[in-house]
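dumping this here before i forget
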Amino acid sequence: MSQRYQKEIEEILKQSGGLKGTGRGGGSGTPLWRLVWRWISGLLRGRSWSEPGRLILIAMSLLLSALVIRAIAPGIAGPVAWAGLLLFVLGYAMFFVRPRRMEKRWRGQPIDEPVRSWWDRVRRKIG
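structure:
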C-alpha cells in the first residue's frame, strides 16, 4: 500500500509545475441538465432494481404517467397512482433501512483494508 502512496505523491509532484487556471469562475462548469441526465442514466445502468434511488425514479414515472393516463382512461389512473405512491414510500424507507456500503477510494483506486475477524474487532473495542 505504501507503493501506491509513493506513486500518487510522485504524480502530484510532476504535475505541480503545470497547474494553470481554467479562467472560469466558481462551480464545476457542468450544466444542471447534464448532471441530472448522468444521475438518471447511472440509475438505469446499475446492478439491481431494488436500490432506493431506482424505486423512487420508477415511482415518480408512475405518478407522472397516472396524470397523463387520467385524461385518457380515468379508471386505470387510480391503481397506477397508488402503485407509484407505494413504490415511493418503499424506496424512501429503504434509504434508512439499508444503508449504502461505502468503499474507501483514493484517486479512483480502492484502498485495501485488512479483513479483521470478529474476535479482533471485539478486542479492539475492549481495549
